[in-house]
Automatic annotation (TrEMBL):
The gene is azoR. Residues 5-201 form the Flavodoxin-like fold domain. This is FMN dependent NADH:quinone oxidoreductase. PANTHER family: FMN-DEPENDENT NADH-AZOREDUCTASE 1 (PTHR43741), FMN-DEPENDENT NADH:QUINONE OXIDOREDUCTASE (PTHR43741:SF2). It is an enzyme of class 1 (oxidoreductase). InterPro entries: Flavodoxin_fold (IPR003680), Flavoprotein-like_sf (IPR029039), FMN-dep_NADH:Q_OxRdtase_AzoR1 (IPR050104), NADH:quinone_OxRdtase_FMN_depd (IPR023048). Keywords: Flavoprotein, FMN, NAD, Oxidoreductase. SUPFAM superfamilies: Flavoproteins.
Amino acid sequence: MNSLKLLQLECSPRGENSTSRHFTHHLLPAMAERFGRDIQVVRRDLGAEPLPPITAEYAESLVLPIAEAKSRFGAALALSDHLIQELDDADMLWISAPVHNFTVPAVLKNWIDLVVRRDVTFKTTENGKVGLLQDRPTFVAVTSGGAMFREPALQPDFFRPYLKAALGVIGLKDVTFMHATGLAFADEPLSVVETKAEQWLREASFRRTIPSIA
Ligand SMILES: Cc1cc2nc3c(=O)[nH]c(=O)nc-3n(C[C@H](O)[C@H](O)[C@H](O)COP(=O)(O)O)c2cc1C
C-alpha cells in the first residue's frame, strides 16, 4: 500500500522549546501507527523560516482573472503556486501552532494568504465562495499560555473559527483540533502537553477520523 503524504506546518518561533511542536512530536508517531500506513512527512517550518510577506503584485493579481494574473504577475505568483501544489499533493495536513493574541500566529496567516487564491483554490459563486481543493483530513495541534477553548470563555477564541473558515473556503472541511492550554501556569509545560496528547489519543473522536484517510 502506498504511503500517506502528510504536509506538516510548524508555526511556533520557539524551536525545540515549543509546546505545540512537542504536542505534535508526541501525537504524530502514535497516529501514524494507528493509521497502519507509512507516513511520508513534508515539513515546512514556518516558525523558523517564515514565508515572505505578500507583495503589491501578488495582491493586485488576486483581483484579476487567472489568465491575466498569470501573464502580468507570473513571477509574483510562483511561491503561492508552489505552496498550493505542496498542499494539494498531501493526503493529510497537520498544523502545530500556538495561540497568538487569540488567533493563529502571523506566520500561519501569511501561509493562508498565499494559498487562498480565487480561481485556483476557491471560486466565487452567487452563493458565496466554494473551495476547489479536494477535502483531506487536517489535524491542528494547538497550545496556549492561558485558558482557551473552554466554557465559560475566559479569552475569545478567534483561532478555531478563523482557521476553520480559512481552510473551509478552499475545500478543507475535515478539521480536527487537539489542544493543550493553560501552559503558562504549569511547572512543566512539556509534560502537561504529553499528558494531553495521551488523553487525546484515547478519545473516540480520534478513531472516527481514521476511515476518511484509509
Ligand atoms: C505573541 C504571543 C501572543 C500570545 N497570545 C496568547 C493569547 O492570546 N492567549 C493565550 O492563552 N496565550 C497566548 N500566548 C502564549 C502562547 O500561546 C503559549 O506560550 C504557547 O504555549 C506557545 O506555544 P509554543 O511553545 O509552541 O510557541 C501568546 C504568546 C505569544 C508569544
